[in-house]
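Continuing from the previous page of notes. For each protein in this section, the sequence appears first, followed by its structure tokens. Read the first protein now.
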Amino acid sequence: MSGRYGPGDVRFFDRIARIYATVMPSAPTDSIRDAFVVANRPIECVLDVGGGTGRAATGLRTLGIDTVVMDISMHMLTYAASDGHPVVAGDGRHLPIATNAVDAAVIVDALHHIPTPERALTELTRVVAPGGIIIIQEFDPTSTLGQALVWAEHRIGFSSTFWTPAELCDELNSPDTESYLVDEGFEYVIVSRVK
């Protein structure tokens, strides 16, 4: 069943883009930085899927990593672009990126908003070159804070899909990828290396 905000809750994020850009700090990068060591290729071209206003890209910039922000919400992308990030409008289920075109893809606190997230995971694997990595930061729905978040998102009309760390690792593991849990807790990080 679809939430009242539409695919990827885009109408909601269009509405709150200015507030979101003002009050949300850049995403913490410690666990994301640690995940980069799994790559078997130099990381030069990074795509931030569902990157919104550029929270993760801003954090990655502090590590010296320039990142292209991709989102379905044009209002959110306006703020990412005004912060100096290159932007691409697109849907995580149908990435407007060529096969094997990036060294890494990150998706921070956004996978649960994408309808048919399994399709997004397939697309992430497609666009990352062999030896590159996919880094996903998500919320554990079994933690106390995670249970509250799931309740709140469904209460306001989101049709979010949440996975436990083990479920997401299982979903990412395939003949084409190897996945590892890098950090656990309310916000967990998984890295998946593309073979």
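Done with the first. The second protein uses the same format. Note its length before scrolling.
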Amino acid sequence: MRFLLVVFLALTVVACNDEVTIKPNSKLRLEYPTPEYESVEMEFPYTFKKNKEASLISKRNGGINLKYSKMKATIYLTYQKVNNKQSIDSLLYDAQKLTYDHTVKAESILEQPRVDSINNVYGMFYMINGNAATHSQFYVTDSVNHFVTGSLYFNIKPNYDSLYPAIVYLRNDVRTLMETIEWN
């Protein structure tokens, strides 16, 4: 019995000489390139700036897709011509309804209004937090002739925690796109 006690005390003394090093929790570090923006001028009645990382795909229906193949994400843009007062009301209703249809999965929806009276651009930028299908949506209009909507979608199952760095990066691109729209 004394032998076991001596061995135990010897091991305790030897084990206590090493300093314990506390290591910080590791986190996934995703880095994206610094965005470089270029002007997009096409046959559409508006221009904007897009990230050079995004490839532009023009659609027949007047839409534009900005595809981020490395992030498996796409920003879908749709242009509609405003015809009369009733039309702008229905376009605004549809854009807002499309955003708030995500409240089933969203934790919160933050709104950021856009008012640029110099360039006659007015709209709303929506940041949708949670496991919703989209994480950013917006609309801009001049209230008389033009109406543009945009939505950000990932081509994977929504997992807000894992996608968060990409969401933040692409939200900045969506915001820049929205803020640089000018009517022709």
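What the second structure shows: The chain has a mean pLDDT of 85. Residues 112 and 125 are 5 Å apart (CA to CA). We return to this in next week's lecture.
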